[in-house]
Amino acid sequence: MTPLGGFHSGGSRWLLRQKPGRVVLATFLSLKEGMPNDTHPMIAAMPFAAQLGIELDSAEPQEVRGRMLWREGLCTTGGMMHGGAMMAFADSVGAVCAFLNLPAGASTTTIESKTNFFRGVRGGTLLATAKPLHVGRRFIVVQTDLLDEDGKRVAQITQSQAVLS
User: Fold this and answer.
1) Which residues pair with 69 in a beta bridge?
2) What is the extent of the structural domain holding 142?
3) Phi, psi of 45, rounded to the nearest 5 degrees
4) Structural domain tally of the chain?
């Protein structure tokens, strides 16, 4: 397995390793130092998420919080953030939540996603909060709320993740 680095969560450090075609959480280490300022390794493990500029604010099995800045390259006509960019943001943060709830040695992939859009985003920062609704042996279901800077709900996404062993 190829080492990818680690990430800090709840005062602990997780070491990520990659097998061909997937990333697995291989080792848990106790650590007292804080999270580094560079790209979060959970995002670095997903190149598309890194390209979107997704940042994680916190990552715990019961809740993952992230942010993505509005920028012109993520927009459709009229300066409105593209729905696909918002869905990709939610899917990435939700996948981290699912990943943190996996049994040792397992990986995950999204098998279903449903999005309800409530309002558009024309600037600022989009915030995401992902929480598991169901954690089972074969599937993990995650709900992600997207909020604008004013705390108004922009979209709600429910995704099902397969547990791959």
Assistant:
1) 125
2) 2-164
3) -75, -10
4) 1
